[in-house]
From TrEMBL:
Pathway: Cell wall biogenesis; peptidoglycan biosynthesis
Catalysed reaction, written as an equation: phosphoenolpyruvate + UDP-N-acetyl-alpha-D-glucosamine = UDP-N-acetyl-3-O-(1-carboxyvinyl)-alpha-D-glucosamine + phosphate
Entry keyword Endoplasmic reticulum: no
A cellular component annotation (GO) from this entry: cytoplasm
Keyword Cell division appears in the UniProt entry: yes
The species this protein was found in: freshwater metagenome
Uppermost EC category: transferase
TM annotation in the entry: none
Similarity comment: Belongs to the EPSP synthase family. MurA subfamily.
EC number(s) reported in the record: 2.5.1.7
Phylogenetic lineage: unclassified sequences, metagenomes, ecological metagenomes
Limits of the Enolpyruvate transferase domain: 33-433
One BP term from GO: peptidoglycan biosynthetic process
Protein name: UDP-N-acetylglucosamine 1-carboxyvinyltransferase
Amino acid sequence: MSFTNPNLRFADRLGKRSLNSYDEVVEILKVVGGGRLVGEVRVTGAKNSVLKLMAAALLAEGTTTLLDVPDILDVEIMAELLRRLGCEVSHDQATSMVIIIVPAELDHRADYDLVRRMRASICVLGPLLARCGAAEVALPGGDNIGSRGLDMHVEGLIKLGARAVNEHGYLIASSQQRLRGDSVYLDFPSVGATETILMAAVTAVGTTIIDNVAREPEIVDICTMLSAMGANISGAGTSTLTIVGVDALQPVTHRTVPDRIVAGTWAVAAVITQGDITIRNARVEHLEIALEKLATAGATVTVVDDGFRVTMDQRPLSVDIVTLPYPGFPTDLQPQFIALNAVAIGAALVTENLFEARFRFVQELARLGADVRTDGHHALVRGRSQLSGAPVEATDIRAGAGLVLAGLVAEGVTTIYGVSHIDRGYAEFVPDLQRLGARIIRIDEDAD
Ligand code: UD1
């Protein structure tokens, strides 16, 4: 067993191994509970935006530059995927910049070995179909949080004139001619389906109207970038997108929207540890409901320059939450709020409406002594005055964050396995936690 230098940037640590060998390395986090987190953190660009911005770059031949790119595993996976399609991709961690050089001719097949590692790989489907008239994308894996269908992606592309079949584990889409605009209605405001259809429609012939689209800040971000590239899009941030197809797009330089889920995780960290954290490069307007819930729990949230500050000086009160598409409460903050409720005064009802398997992490939280009962998509959390440290396994990115938060307040040592899940979404998590006063280390278990 040896310590991993937490100050090494993620890509530097990764550099010692290939992407494929990363899974074989067992890294763990050890957290000693107790103590307030106090200080300041800066949030980077959003994972859930930058992956799609990288895919959107495929729509324009030439050099796209993305700024404020987080140093996380998913960015490395997407970079590798784009390289396999024929792009040159460099990621300068020091400046948080990704440069993508897109050739005139692209390969149009995204293989299973990368797609299985990250469900968001599906976001190359729309741009590849638009650019190449064909796309073959392995059916994705990714987070272990439920079935997550692709029916709305496929139906939308078919509406625009594509053929789509599922063969040998691949989704194969093609179109003899340029796609043509049409009206598309989504049964549910799916983030991924909105992005797929949007990226396919920007260079279609004629007008596409997509109704009941997702309204997440990450959708607004990609619309902003596509518009700068020359796309004609109106309605970003509302339930209807109108896209008038253009012949071609040009590459641009674009700054990624801040990661509201990472900002929200830090806000919960302040509350659960009864601490005081100033979160920079964060937008309160992207987190309204979550921050209101924290205020109900007893926290003080104040807007500061380029972000907000969360302070807490008492044991939190429990808060009910119901996850919904934006602007509702984000499912990606649900595990963190369950952790908070696990040590709060009172009982809370948590309703998960997006991903049925997201409650799997509750079994891990129970290992720390949390009192959580689930029934279908509801969880009843009865707050305990004290959790007790134990070994636990992160089952997805946000479950990992929830377990770290619980470990910060559990008595004794909590050991967290499945760290690669956390690496998929949180850049500089351990060093930032250390700077705020957490007693946490990262250990490489296979290196004795
Ligand atoms: C994105 C985010 C994820 C977040 C989620 C909801 C990325 C990389 N991931 O995931 O972190 O939790 O939004 O905010 O951006 N569905 C279908 N058929 C479809 C599409 C979706 O049934 O064609 C269902 C899914 O199974 C799921 C729900 O719709 O139950 C939400 O999915 P969606 O909004 O598409 O989420 P993702 O884009 O996968």
